[in-house]
Design brief:
alpha/beta, TIM Barrel, cytoplasm, magnesium, transferase, pantothenate biosynthesis
Length: about 280
């Protein structure tokens, strides 16, 4: 049975404008994935700024080979669970594969994830013309958007695997151009995944919106990890950009608090967690 953690510290709710203030003031943003109410309560108690219900649940919860089989109904279900465990932490939900195939479907999915499931922001991958149009349409209707560029997992077949993006000069310029495009379309924040740390720093400095890195180097405005990766419980090899924060600690709560502290202090990620 899930019981609300009454000992959780009282915090002011994290807001979208508040994230922009954090970037302006140079305060690191801490983001972590969650898929149920119990993990959400741990994240809330540790003072994490943003919880992401990622379609990564397809791999770490469902045991799928990719994020592609995750459905909108499943995202709504898991987002609803996570929302029950949060009070101040901002809740972001992933737009699953092909839910953004056109503007109409993106609006329908956004409405469900915000209105039905309780998210405060929608994350959407890529910068294709229909994605930019969807970002614009969502934000026009008061649905904040988190863009996602670089190594976008829903494009795994196009990339030929989970490969670092933006290493060649032409590719780096493309990712930078996409970053400007999603900002112009109205995205409130950007998740930048799997790019060289020099490119991560360049994009972070170029954009007005906060840039949250995952394998994008230490100079981003914040960091995000898959919670199962940072606890060392994901089957198989842990990604280079992650770290086992549970090792040497007595509880999941202590591990999440240590992750938040290391992101805020700049101790994580280190060079060993970044790409050249």
């Amino acid at each position: 049975m899930y019981v609300e953690n009454a000992s959780a510290p009282v915090r002011r709710p994290v807001t979208v404008p508040g994230l922009h203030v954090m970037k302006a003031e140079g305060r690191k943003i801490v983001m972590l994935t969650a898929y149920d109410a119990s993990f959400a309560a741990q994240i809330e108690h540790a003072g994490v700024d943003v919880a992401l219900v990622g379609d990564s649940l397809g791999m770490v919860v469902q045991g799928q080979r990719s994020t592609l089989p995750v459905t909108l109904d499943q995202m709504v279900y898991h987002t609803t669970l996570v929302a029950r465990g949060l009070t101040a932490t901002l809740l972001v939900a992933d737009m699953p594969f092909m839910a953004d195939r056109d503007v109409a479907h993106a609006l329908e999915a956004g409405a469900r994830l915000i209105g039905e499931a309780g998210a405060a922001m929608i994350k959407i991958e890529g910068a294709a013309p229909h994605i930019l149009a969807s970002i614009h349409a969502l934000t026009e209707r008061a649905i904040p958007v988190c863009a996602h560029l670089g190594l976008t997992p829903q494009s795994v077949h196009k990339f030929g695997g989970y490969k670092v993006q933006g290493r060649a000069q032409e590719a780096a310029e493309r990712v930078l151009g996409e970053a400007h495009a999603v900002q112009q379309a109205g995205a409130s924040i950007l998740v930048l995944e799997g790019v060289p740390m020099a490119l991560g720093e360049r994009i972070t400095k170029a954009l007005e919106i906060p840039v949250i890195g995952i394998g994008a180097g230490p100079q981003c405005d914040g960091q995000v990890l898959v919670v199962y990766d940072m606890l060392g419980i994901t089957p198989g090899k842990r990604p280079k950009f992650s770290k086992d924060f549970l090792a040497g600690r007595g509880s999941i709560g202590e591990a999440i608090a240590a992750y938040a502290d290391d992101v805020r202090s700049g101790a994580f990620p280190a060079a060993e967690h970044s790409y050249n």
